[in-house]
Automatic annotation (TrEMBL):
<dbReference type="Pfam" id="PF00648">
    <property type="entry name" value="Peptidase_C2"/>
</dbReference>
<dbReference type="InterPro" id="IPR001300">
    <property type="entry name" value="Peptidase_C2_calpain_cat"/>
</dbReference>
<keyword id="KW-0677">Repeat</keyword>
<feature type="active site">
    <location>
        <position position="112"/>
    </location>
</feature>
<keyword id="KW-0862">Zinc</keyword>
<dbReference type="GO" id="GO:0004198">
    <property type="term" value="F:calcium-dependent cysteine-type endopeptidase activity"/>
</dbReference>
<feature type="domain" description="Calpain catalytic">
    <location>
        <begin position="42"/>
        <end position="344"/>
    </location>
</feature>
<comment type="similarity">
    <text>Belongs to the peptidase C2 family.</text>
</comment>
<keyword id="KW-0378">Hydrolase</keyword>
<feature type="active site">
    <location>
        <position position="288"/>
    </location>
</feature>
<keyword id="KW-0645">Protease</keyword>
<dbReference type="GO" id="GO:0006508">
    <property type="term" value="P:proteolysis"/>
</dbReference>
<protein>
    <submittedName>
        <fullName>Calpain family cysteine protease containing protein</fullName>
    </submittedName>
</protein>
<keyword id="KW-0479">Metal-binding</keyword>
<keyword id="KW-0788">Thiol protease</keyword>
<dbReference type="InterPro" id="IPR022684">
    <property type="entry name" value="Calpain_cysteine_protease"/>
</dbReference>
<keyword id="KW-0597">Phosphoprotein</keyword>
């Protein structure tokens, strides 16, 4: 055989096609299509079959028994054999003319949360089109949709066989002969194991998975905050959905008003308008993905509040198309929460898969290519990827971003930039202006005991194409990294921190900053800016619910010594993501250097002059007594020109001891001072309570 005549690329494709058939695993759209072309056969997806298990994974599950009788009648039919699609006389297409949000029609599947997100995405058709690997019809029935699942963009390949009831699509479809709604829904079902598994979900998860953009949830109990969020979202082109779930009204009342409980809607527009009488009204344009059943209250289609001028301004029409307006007050009364997807079509996405054992962490290096806005996320595996009886639940997770200022010769210096904590599928934080450079993402998940999967994903979404390099956790201990991070945080004195000094102990240049941050770590940062004072402190937490001290400390108290020029940090970890309570008592003392004590003794001590016993005249012989947090000290000065001074100072001590104890081992200090000489005596604390008595005998000659 002449190898020069062989097309090696073609040979590789054939080998791959054989492997694909042998393993029945997912391949890329191009590879699956190539296999079908080589075999001249229609694609039959063996990983999401046209069988009952793709409708319902477990037909014996009590939760699905209300569906069994109807769903057993479903038949899988190729789209080319569905009468309503093929008999319209229009050529089959993925997209027919322009994508219109009103084209979406919900079927027998309770996935309105998914369809409402499709409708808001469809307001900008390119956002739907970009999810399709190809928009062309092919004779082999091979299609692929891109979905960002569990933090990673995946190419979901599906065939064109759909569940049908009475020869019509049983579930969602488009209004007409286009396939994009059926294909999107099938790809979503395949990702989660079955059609039944995608019933009743959360719009914020769909918006995130179809865009890669972080999505926030805003509750409607504060109208002012919600309106500001809606105005910002509308001005920036964000996607908005809303949930009429748990509200103040009953299900029956909602239906009378034209609303559906536990139902997801899309928000298309928000406007503040001026009425004829000069009053202002905040209006919200809402879409029901069912395509009908509309709000019947104020500003509904039939409301008398509409004027021709306002109808023209807001594009209001009376059609029963599922689109209606509400004012902000009514909206907040009946809609419990709003989801805002912070999409920007120019932004770039990158991700990194992490594997973290219990009690460990990840430290992933991230490179930001250019200054700009970036959001960092931590994403756990979606609970829908597990069976309903798998007892899977999300674990408490944390992420912290820190800029690498220096990493030379093993010396790491970091700048704290904030973080986030939560026991939800996704947690994320937006950083409004990251500078070009290298960063560390500290990520940690407190895996629940019943969770076996220890993988999660970190992602970056922002103005530049950031990229992750590696996990550096093997280079540093967790406490070492956190100490670096929170020393930086302490120096920044962020909002919410508590800053105290030790001025009451005559040392204003020792600082203590305390804070518990939103990512679930707290700290006590000590910064001793002195050159001759040492802080000794004991802190006991009388209440420490939901919190733990990190090594080397333990239990509910710590003792710390901070020498001159030192910075130290005590780390606190929030163990309970839902709250904590803390109360403490503190015992502090400052150990001064001998020079500092002599200075304080003279400046702030109690002054006593010795008196000549022969003539009762005060002498220029001085005693200064100074009491401070760590003890008591005495300073003697003989400022006479020609007199000598001797004194015997006898102490009776409790909780104190003489620093330079006399040679005879007693607590009696003998002072001998010639003219111009001084003597310093220091007593230091050795117990929580002090008692001192003195007896003095002196002579002058």
């Amino acid at each position: 055989m002449d190898f020069n005549e062989i097309n090696l690329g073609e040979l590789g494709r054939q080998i791959f096609a054989r492997l694909l058939r042998a393993t029945a695993s997912d391949g890329s759209y191009e590879d699956v299509l190539y296999e079908c072309q080589q075999n001249d056969s229609l694609f039959e997806d063996e990983t999401f079959t046209a069988g009952p298990e793709s409708l319902i994974k477990d037909w014996s599950d009590k939760a699905v028994q209300d569906k069994v009788s109807t769903w057993k009648q479903f038949k899988w039919i190729r789209v080319t054999e569905i009468p309503s699609i093929m008999e319209g006389g229009v050529q089959l297409a993925v997209f027919l003319d322009n994508i219109d949000p009103s084209d979406i029609r919900q079927g027998l599947l309770g996935d309105c949360y998914f369809l409402s997100c499709l409708s808001v995405l469809a307001e900008n058709p390119s956002r739907i089109m970009n999810l399709f690997v190809t928009s062309k019809i092919n004779q082999y029935g091979v299609y692929a949709i891109k979905i960002c699942k569990n933090g990673e963009w995946k190419e979901v390949v599906v065939d064109d066989r759909f569940p049908c009831f009475q020869n019509e699509p049983a579930f969602s479809k488009a209004h007409g002969d286009e396939l994009w709604v059926l294909l999107m829904e099938k790809a979503w079902a395949k990702l989660h194991g079955s059609y039944e598994r995608i019933e009743a979900g959360f719009a914020e998860n769909v918006l995130r998975d179809l865009t890669g953009a972080p999505t926030e949830q805003v509750h409607s109990d504060d109208q002012e905050i919600l309106w500001k969020k809606l105005i910002e979202a509308e001005s920036k082109g964000y996607l908005i959905a809303a949930s009429a779930g748990t509200t103040k009204a009953s299900k029956e009342l909602l239906e009378k008003l034209g609303l559906i409980g536990n139902h997801s809607y899309g928000i298309l527009d928000v406007r503040e308008v001026t009425l004829d009488d000069g009053d202002k009204e905040k209006l919200i344009k809402v879409r029901n993905p069912w395509g009908d059943f509309e709000w019947k209250g104020d500003w509904g289609d039939d409301s008398e509040l509409w004027t021709p001028k306002l109808e023209k301004l807001l594009g209001q029409s009376d059609g029963n198309d599922g689109i209606f307006f509400m004012n902000l007050e009514d909206f907040c009364h009946y809609f419990s929460r709003v989801q805002i997807c912070r999409i920007n079509d120019k932004y770039k996405y990158s991700s990194f898969k992490c594997n973290q054992n219990r009690d460990s962490y990840c430290l992933v290096k991230l490179v930001i290519p250019s200054d700009g806005l970036y959001s960092i996320s931590l994403l756990q595996t979606d609970e829908r990827c597990f069976g309903r009886n798998d007892d899977y639940d999300y674990s408490n997770a944390r992420l912290i971003l820190a800029k690498i200022l220096s990493d030379q010769e093993g010396v790491l210096e970091l700048e704290y930039l904030g973080g986030q904590m939560g026991q939800t599928r996704d947690i994320w934080k937006e950083y409004s202006m990251l500078k070009k450079g290298e960063y560390y993402v500290f990520a940690e998940v407190d895996w629940q005991e019943k969770v076996d999967l220890t993988e999660f994903c970190i992602s970056c979404y922002g103005s530049g194409q950031a990229y992750f390099i590696r996990d550096d956790k093997v280079l540093y201990k967790k406490q070492e990294i956190l100490a670096q991070i929170y020393k930086s945080c302490g120096k920044q004195e962020q909002e919410g921190s508590k800053h105290v000094t030790y001025e009451q102990y005559q040392e204003p240049n020792i600082h203590k900053i305390t804070q518990l941050c939103e990512e679930g770590y707290g700290f006590v940062f000590y910064d001793n800016k002195t050159t001759e004072s040492t802080l000794n402190e004991t802190v006991t937490y009388n209440k420490f619910d939901g919190l733990t001290l990190m090594k080397p400390y333990k239990d509910q108290s710590y003792q710390i010594v901070v020498a001159p020029g030192e910075q130290k940090v005590v780390l606190i970890r929030q163990a309970d993501p839902f709250g904590y309570s803390m109360a403490s008592s503190t015992s502090s003392s400052i150990g001064f250097s001998k020079d500092k004590l002599q200075k304080l003794c003279k400046e702030q001590g109690k002054l006593t002059k010795r008196v000549n016993p022969s003539n009762k005249q005060e002498l220029e012989i001085y005693q200064y007594q100074y009491k401070h947090s760590s003890g008591i000290c005495y300073l003697y000065e003989n400022k006479t020109v020609n007199k000598k001074f001797e004194e015997q100072l006898k102490f009776v001590l409790s909780g104190l001891e003489i620093v330079e104890k006399p040679a005879d081992g007693t607590d009696t200090v003998r002072i001998k001072l010639g003219p111009g000489e001084t003597k310093f005596i220091e007593l230091k604390s050795v117990g929580p309570q002090w008692k001192i008595q003195t007896a003095v005998a002196f002579s002058i000659y």
